[in-house]
Amino acid sequence: MAAEDKEVVDGVKSYLCEQIASVIHRGTEKLPRISRLYVEAHMLNNQVRFLKQELRLQAKPPSYVGVRQRGKFVVNIDRNIDVTLLKPLMRVALHPETYALHVILPRKVDLLVNVMKVENLVQKYIGQGAMMVKVLFLMARLHAPSIIFMDEINSIGSAHTESGKLFNQLDGFEATNRVKVLTATNRVDMLDPALLRPGRIDRKVKFPNPNEQVLESIDLKKVAKKINGASSAELKLVCTEARMFSLRERRIHVTQEDFEMAVAKVMKTETKNMSLRKLWN
């Protein structure tokens, strides 16, 4: 009887050791991917932190910064300086992936936001588009603080279009009006170099496209098997949800796990402990 108990104990011990070794092996395989996700999140955090800093300038009034004597270098401050007259940078350019910013930005900013698609400014009648630009900037000044977000700026800011009125409005901007101008484009090569010079576009933020390694890591055939029979609207929603999972984790690229999470959410499949399966399966 003792020999049989010893065999049972040895069998259970051997089974548990195999299971522990399997879990350790799977965890070791996931570590490089987790490290890559951390790197991608850090890369996107820089852009997000920069945009938050620019937008907070609209809501917070200027203030003095305390300076203490340290070392042998002493900074003399003129107390007659009026910090309210200091002019912050007023124009920011975003490129190239701007769809998510175009959708999310107006919903996440508490200020008065003026959103206008710049393709509406391209009119067949000469002078009508220029007049709309003038009215847009006038309304932004009247309702300051405000943000003007121009998507697809290349349609009116390229070297082959009449962009003089836009240049005049940007040149005539006053920082005290508390008006922020955000522009976005997927075609930086089409923009007029005069538009990109300092004084018109002060800051430029680039959101990179997925690289070849990220694209190869997504198995669309595996995703397709899980959504067999889905409608075209459901397929579009799966892609949208996958992109949103990536944005929530502040990552630049969409991964295979994002698509699997999106399929589970859209197709109403089993979602219990999905976050654990996403990490270890």
UniProtKB/TrEMBL annotation:
Keyword annotations: ATP-binding, Cytoplasm, Hydrolase, Nucleotide-binding, Protease, Proteasome
One Pfam family cited in the UniProt record for this chain: AAA_lid_3
Entry GO CC: cytoplasm; proteasome complex
Domain AAA ATPase AAA+ lid: 217-260
GO terms for biological process, alphabetical: proteolysis
ATPase AAA-type core domain location: 116-208
GO molecular function, one term: ATP binding
Family: Belongs to the AAA ATPase family.
PANTHER family: 26S PROTEASOME REGULATORY SUBUNIT (PTHR23073)
Protein name: 26S protease regulatory subunit
